[in-house]
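Q: Entry one of two.
A:
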Amino acid sequence: MNVQDSFPAKWKFENMMRPPAFLDYVNDNPVEEKRYLTLKKDLKSLRDLVLNRCLPDFGASYGLSMAAVTEVSGSTVIGVEPDEKRVRRGAHILRESEIIGTPRLLAGACLPAATATQSLAAHFPS
């Protein structure tokens, strides 16, 4: 048995040569990994609809959907999540992941509803 076989996938040598992908952060959770891969596969057929657009993700959690949309389309995705712990985790993952596009994750719970709506509206063309 190779010593590396006992390490998590994101610690293996071949993975040290590249920045971590979003999948590296969910590969230890089969449900999240399947959700992520299924969403990416399904989005490929919708790529032309979301290509180069700015899209909202309300209830973004730690950014799984944001990462999938951004990776498939290169679009800008603005995510809003009320749970600050998820925002911190998501911001870290999105920052560390090698994602083409511009995912931005905002903490929505700290903003009054009207302010959050106005802040988001500023990012989207009418």
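Q: Entry two of two.
A:
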Amino acid sequence: MEVDEKKLREYVKLYQIARLQLPSLIPELTEFEIRQQVSARDWLIFPLFSEADRKEGVNRPDPHLDITLREPEKVRIGIRCNTIKSVDKLKNILNGYHAAEKDKLLLLMNSLDDRFITSIINKQKEYNFAQMPKHETMFQEKSNSINGIKIMEMFELIDKIRQRGIEKRKEQGVSFLPEAPVIDLTYVSVPLEEEAYRLAMIEIGKIYEICIRIKTISEIETIQKESNKRKKVIFQGYICTKCKATFPLDQKPMFCPICGTHISQRY
């Protein structure tokens, strides 16, 4: 089913408004290019600057920002992790490396009003990878209620959904996961009015900016290794290996005045 011309024009307008509000997150596209981003299933993923077409956005290993006009006279805006890689990446918000991002993410979510919702969905495909999936909501809370404990519980549920999918894949002998988790980190439906849409996009955009900064485990490990290489050992002085007497760097004796041991080891 194709999206009609009236909706296509509305998507173009909404894209352009969002681009004005989030210029560092949303690339400038021509009207033709915006239309190409609209799915026949009536939604639009905002591309990253590095993405050339809509398919890249759909299969993105990062959370994506999207809008849909399925509900009459309303626009739904949300941040979704729709692929296994994007779910894994968002989970890295729990890694100590991203402690600052986690704190800021929770602070921003807690500042949202009661219209914003967070949910976890079990995406189920019984026959083949290409079929239209069935979606079962497994968790749903107001986004402003999400705290450190709840986000841990969310990822525990996500791990359980994935494990069931792995077990079913083995049982059925298929190449895809019959069950897989989807995260709607936050979403909201607002009236199809420019001001309401603009304000909601700004709020969600702040959270989206954090999401796309989250790194993979391999990226974190590489950064930490490079950081460790750059660290220099700062010596405070010299120490006697026998009696453990210490001496400042600029007052090193050749021999320990206490026990006579040769001084060479720094600490």
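A: Comment on entry two: The beta strands are 43-45, 64-68, 74-81, 117-124, 134-142, 179-191, 237-239, 246-248, 265-266. The chain has two domains: 5-226, 237-266.
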